[in-house]
C-alpha cells in the first residue's frame, strides 16, 4: 500500500520506517527541511534502538522517501497518517492543536476524493469529529479516522513492529478495511485489534496514559508514607505487584514521570473533561500531577539536607539527564529539572548521560556536561542518581569513591544495588526506603 506519514518526529519517523519495513511504500513529510534532508540521507534525527539500521535499509530499498510538500503527499497516496506534536498550550493546561489544525487545513486543499486521514497524535476527545467537519468543508469524499500510538521511547521500533494492540476509531467499513490492510502482517503476528468509533479511540489513548501515570504517582505516594514510617517502598511495590490483579510493572518508585507525553497528556485530559462537564470525574489527575512534581521537590530538599542545608560552594554530580533510560529525549526530564533547581540554589552541577548530552546542553546551557562518569564525579560532595541507565549499575563504587570529595550518594531512582556501594564506604540514601 501507499501512504504518507506527516510529521517525522519520534512517532512519525518510527511509524514511517516500520511501515516501509513491513512492505508499504511510504512518503514521510515534515515542514522541517533540515530534518527531511537528514532522513532522506538515511540518517535518523532521533536515537532509538534498531532505527538506524531499518531506516538505512528502507531508504535504500526505495520504499521510503521524504518530502516537505503536502501537495506531493496528497498526490502520492490516499492514506495519510498525521503524527505532528500536540504539546501543552503555553497559556493553559489544554492541548495545543495548532499543528494538527495546520496540517488538516493544508491537506484539505490538496486531498483526492476517497482519501483517508488517520490521526496518530494524542488529542482531546472530539478532535477527529471536528477535523472531519473541517475537512468536509473543502475536500469532497474524505474521512478522518483515529489510530492512537502506544509506543514507548527507547523501545519504539520494537513496540511498533510487535504491538500488543492496535486501536482504530473509524466511521466507515472502508476506513476499517484500509487500516486492517495497513497492519495486516502485525495482526497476523498476534496483535489484538480493537475497532471502535473515533471518540472511543481518542479516549483509549489518554485513559491508558492516565492509568500508567496514576500507577507511578500511587507508588511514589506510598514511598512518602514509607519514608515517614521507616518502611521500604521497594519491597512494598514488589509485594503488592505480586498480586496479578495489580501487576508489578510501572510501580518503580523514585523521581517520577517526565517526557513529552504523560505530564501534558494527563493535564490535557483533565482540561478536556472539564470542557465536557466531566471534570470532577478525573479531578484525581490533578493529584497525580501534584504528587509527580512533588517527587522532584522532595529530591532537591533531600539533596540539600545531605549537603548540610545549603548548596552554596557544593559540587553535585548528576547521573542521568534524559527523562528515561534508553532515550536521548530531555523534554520535561525530571533529572534535568532537579539539576536546574540545584544550580539555581547555588550548587556547581556536573551532569553525565550516555546519550542525551547534546539535547541537555541545548535545553540547559548553564550546566557542565561530560560523557565520562569519573570526570563528572571528580571532587563531588554528593552524587545524585536521577535516570536509571543500565551503565550506572556497572559503576565500580570503590574506584569512584577515590574520585569524589565525599562518598555520598542519593539514589533517587531506587535502582542501584546498595550492598556494593556500602561495602565501598559510601553513605547511601534513597527515596522511600531506610538506608
Ligand atoms: P515531535 O515533536 O517529536 O514531532 C512532531 C513533528 O511534526 C516535528 O518534526 C515537526 O516539525 C512536525 N510538524 C509540525 N507541524 C507540521 C506540519 N504542518 N506539517 C508537517 N510536519 C509538521 O512529536 P512526537 O513526540 O513524535 O509526538 C507526536 C504525537 O504523538 C503527539 O501527539 C504525542 O503526544 C504522540 N505520541 C508521542 C509518543 C512519544 O513517545 N514521543 C508516543 C505516543 C504518542
Ligand atoms: C509512555 C507510555 O508508556 C507509552 O505507551 C505511550 O505511547 C507514550 O508514553 C506516549 O504517549 O508518549 P514513554 O513516555 O516513552 O511512554 O516512557 P515510559 O516508559 O512510559 O516512561 C515514562 C516516564 O515514567 C519516565 O520518566 C519513566 O522514568 C517514568 N516511570 C516509568 C517511573 O517513574 N516509574 C515506573 O515504574 C515507570
What attributes does this structure have?
Rossmann fold, 435 residues, binds nicotinamide-adenine-dinucleotide, binds uridine-5'-diphosphate-glucuronic acid, six-stranded parallel beta sheet
Which helices and strands, and how do they pair?
Elements: E1 2-6, H1 10-21, E2 25-29, H2 33-40, H3 51-61, E3 64-67, H4 70-76, E4 79-82, H5 98-108, E5 116-119, H6 127-138, E6 143-146, H7 156-161, E7 165-169, H8 173-182, H9 184-188, E8 192-196, H10 198-229, H11 233-241, H12 262-275, H13 284-306, E9 315-319, H14 334-344, E10 348-352, H15 357-363, E11 368-370, H16 373-377, E12 382-385, H17 397-401, E13 408-411, H18 418-423, E14 427-430
Parallel strand pairs: 1-2, 1-4, 2-3, 4-5, 5-6, 7-8, 9-10, 9-12, 10-11, 12-13, 13-14
Helix pairs in contact: 1-3, 5-6, 10-11, 10-12, 10-13, 12-13, 13-14
The chain binds nicotinamide-adenine-dinucleotide and uridine-5'-diphosphate-glucuronic acid.
Q: What can you see in these coordinates?
A:
- The chain is α/β, with parallel strands linked by helices and 435 residues long.
- The chain folds into two domains: 2-196, Rossmann fold; 220-435, Rossmann fold.
- The protein is built from 18 helices and 14 strands.
- It has helices at residues 10-21, 33-40, 51-61, 70-76, 98-108, 127-138, 156-161, 173-182, 184-188, 198-229, 233-241, 262-275, 284-306, 334-344, 357-363, 373-377, 397-401, 418-423; strands at residues 2-6, 25-29, 64-67, 79-82, 116-119, 143-146, 165-169, 192-196, 315-319, 348-352, 368-370, 382-385, 408-411, 427-430.
- The strands form three sheets. The chain has a six-stranded parallel sheet with strand order 3-2-1-4-5-6, sandwiched between helices.
- Strand 13 (408-411), helix 18 (418-423) and strand 14 (427-430) form a beta-alpha-beta unit.
- The chain is globular and about 70 Å long.
- The termini are far apart.
- The mean pLDDT is 97.
- The structure holds nicotinamide-adenine-dinucleotide and uridine-5'-diphosphate-glucuronic acid (UGA).
Amino acid at each position: 500500500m501507499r501512504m504518507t506519514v506527516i510529521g517525522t518526529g519520534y512517532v512519525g519517523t518510527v511509524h514511517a520506517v516500520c511501515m516501509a519495513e513491513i512492505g508499504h511504500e511510504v512518503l514521510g513529510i515534515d515542514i522541517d527541511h533540515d530534518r527531511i534532508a537528514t532522513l532522506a540521507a538515511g540518517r535518523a534525527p532521533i536515537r532509538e534502538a534498531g532505527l538506524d539500521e531499518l531506516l538505512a535499509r528502507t531508504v535504500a530499498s526505495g520504499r521510503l522517501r521524504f518530502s516537505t510538500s503536502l501537495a506531493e503527499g496528497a498526490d502520492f497516496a490516499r492514506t495519510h497518517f498525521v503524527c505532528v506534536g500536540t504539546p501543552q498550550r503555553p497559556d493553559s493546561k489544554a492541548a495545543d492543536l495548532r499543528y494538527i489544525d495546520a496540517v488538516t487545513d493544508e491537506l484539505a486543499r490538496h486531498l483526492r476524493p476517497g482519501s483517508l486521514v488517520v490521526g496518530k497524535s494524542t488529542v482531546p476527545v472530539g478532535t477527529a469529529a471536528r477535523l472531519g467537519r473541517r475537512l468536509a468543508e473543502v475536500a469532497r469524499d474524505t474521512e478522518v479516522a483515529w489510530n492512537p500510538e502506544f509506543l514507548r521511547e527507547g523501545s519504539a521500533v520494537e513496540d511498533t513492529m510487535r504491538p500488543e494492540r492496535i486501536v482504530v476509531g473509524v466511521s466507515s467499513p472502508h476506513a476499517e478495511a484500509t487500516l486492517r490492510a495497513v497492519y495486516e502482517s502485525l495482526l497476523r503476528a498476534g496483535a489484538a485489534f480493537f475497532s471502535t468509533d473515533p471518540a472511543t479511540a481518542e479516549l483509549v489513548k489518554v485513559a491508558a496514559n492516565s492509568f500508567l501515570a496514576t500507577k507511578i504517582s500511587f507508588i511514589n505516594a506510598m514511598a512518602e508514607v514509607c519514608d515517614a514510617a521507616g518502611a521500604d517502598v521497594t519491597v512494598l511495590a514488589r509485594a503488592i505487584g505480586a498480586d496479578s490483579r495489580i501487576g508489578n510493572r510501572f510501580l518503580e518508585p523514585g523521581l517520577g514521570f517526565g517526557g513529552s507525553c504523560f505530564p501534558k497528556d494527563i493535564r490535557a485530559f483533565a482540561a478536556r473533561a472539564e470542557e465536557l462537564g466531566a471534570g470532577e470525574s478525573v479531578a484525581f489527575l490533578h493529584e497525580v500531577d501534584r504528587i509527580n512534581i512533588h517527587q522532584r521537590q522532595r529530591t532537591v530538599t533531600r539533596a540539600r539536607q545531605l549537603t548540610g542545608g545549603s548548596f552554596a560552594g557544593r559540587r553535585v554530580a548528576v547521573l542521568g539527564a534524559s527523562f528515561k533510560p534508553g532515550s536521548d529525549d530531555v523534554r520535561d526530564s525530571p533529572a534535568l529539572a532537579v539539576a536546574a533547581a540545584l544550580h539555581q540554589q547555588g550548587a556547581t552541577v556536573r551532569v553525565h548521560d550516555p546519550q542525551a548530552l547534546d539535547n541537555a546542553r541545548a535545553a540547559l546551557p548553564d550546566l557542565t556536561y561530560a560523557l565520562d562518569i569519573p570526570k563528572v564525579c571528580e571532587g563531588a560532595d554528593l552524587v545524585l542518581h536521577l535516570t536509571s541507565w543500565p551503565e550506572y549499575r556497572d559503576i565500580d563504587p570503590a574506584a569512584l569513591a577515590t574520585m569524589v570529595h565525599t562518598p555520598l550518594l542519593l539514589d533517587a531512582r531506587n535502582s542501584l544495588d546498595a550492598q556494593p556501594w556500602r561495602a565501598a564506604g559510601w553513605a547511601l540514601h534513597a527515596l522511600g526506603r531506610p538506608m
